[in-house]
Amino acid sequence: MRLFQNNPFREKLTYILAPFIIISLIGMYLAWDFLFFHRPFGIRLLFDDFDINVYFQSSRWIVGEGILYKDVFSEYPLLANLIFGYCRLVAKVTHPFPSDIESFSFVWTSTSFLLYLFAIFITYTKVSRNSLWLWIAPASVYFALFRFDIYPSVTTLLALMAIRDEKYTRGSIWLGITIALKGYAIFLLPSYCIFIFYKRGIKAVITNTIICFIPFLAGNLMVLLYAGLQGLLAPYAFHGMRGPNGESTYDVFRLSWIATIFPGLPPLLQISSSLLPVLKKPKTFESLVDAFLIAIVGFITFSVFYSPQYFLWIIPIAVFSESLLIRKLTVAFSWVAFFYFPIAYDMRNRELAGRILFRVTITLSAVIRLALLVTAIKRDKGILVNQNPT
């Protein structure tokens, strides 16, 4: 993996990025009405407001329209709602457009754009040039701008970068923030604990595990204190009730009946994906990257509910992979994800060709996920064999 730690190089790149950011934000502002309202061919190619509307509704508490989790429902944890609230407050104060939702959407997209560029900058200068393609593939750009998942994606990137540099406390802090933003990252902890055990021993495992849980537990405690048990459990109950949505791995392979008859099987498979790398004892950063890939791709693959933006959870791990195949599969995943959503998704109810394209893209998406999972498992096995020639 080629690292770029030359300060003059990063400074030169910063000087190039600064005017690009300013020009891009001005251009976005001037074209926003067109982007916000225009749908080429009836497809949300330029802007998608569905999830942004959810963030907008979740942020009503910041403008005095009720108490979060009591009067204002949200399916997201507290830390995520603080981000929603920040964007809503900035939109309210600046009010760049006539309507509240249009102003919020502009602030949200502009902020996400800056965060997305930060991820590219970090990957290019501190991870690998060869991994840049994972960020600039179409679905990466689209979902980074219009989905909240760019936030846990960037914190995962920062966590892995710190862990690679053997700054484990910092890595644990970023991993803890990721868990507080979106709970799926809890499934990374088993592999991380084993990795820390081999690097620093059992005391470090205990310390770093506590650090990882502090943001998550602190957020839940705050919600419990002001919104009560019902408010605390509301988002968890919402996600617990989710079932097959026609796009999961079970739906693709006509296996949704399994989740219906054996509702405990999908969670068991997700937990197994998290624990499988533990059995392989990741001792090096390279093997930890593969372990994280197994845990996250397994979590996504065996979930009864699937959303295309889950792809963003994979990128910050895959950029550290030394496997060319994993990086190629991730780029392919991005292209397929973009054709799946918004293109095929918005065409699926129009005509036969749209329905066929939708079926093809969700099938390819599931196949690539499985290919990523199998590749990471095989690589992890190969790494272990190399470490233990006997």
Description:
The protein is an all-alpha fold and 390 residues long. The chain is 74% helix and 0% strand. Helix 6 (138-146) packs across helix 16 (324-347) and helix 14 (285-301) packs antiparallel against helix 17 (352-387).
Write the topology of this structure.
Layout: H1 7-37, H2 50-58, H3 78-94, H4 100-127, H5 132-136, H6 138-146, H7 150-164, H8 168-181, H9 189-200, H10 202-240, H11 249-252, H12 256-261, H13 265-279, H14 285-301, H15 311-318, H16 324-347, H17 352-387
Helix pairs in contact: 1-4, 3-4, 4-6, 4-7, 6-16, 7-8, 7-15, 8-10, 9-10, 9-13, 13-14, 14-15, 14-17, 15-16, 16-17
Summarize this entry quickly.
The longest helix has 39 residues.
Note the total helix count.
17
How confident is the prediction overall: mean pLDDT? 92
> What is the CA-atom radius of gyration, in angstroms?
21 Å
Major sheet attributes: none
How would you classify the helix and strand content by structural class?
mainly alpha
How many strand elements?
Answer: 0
Q: Which descriptor suits the 3D outline? A: globular
Tell me the quaternary state.
single chain
Which percent range describes the beta-strand content?
A: under 5%
Helicity, as a percent range: over 70%
SSE run = HHHHHHHHHHHHHHHHH
Distance between the termini: 27 Å
Low-confidence stretches: 1-5, 382-390
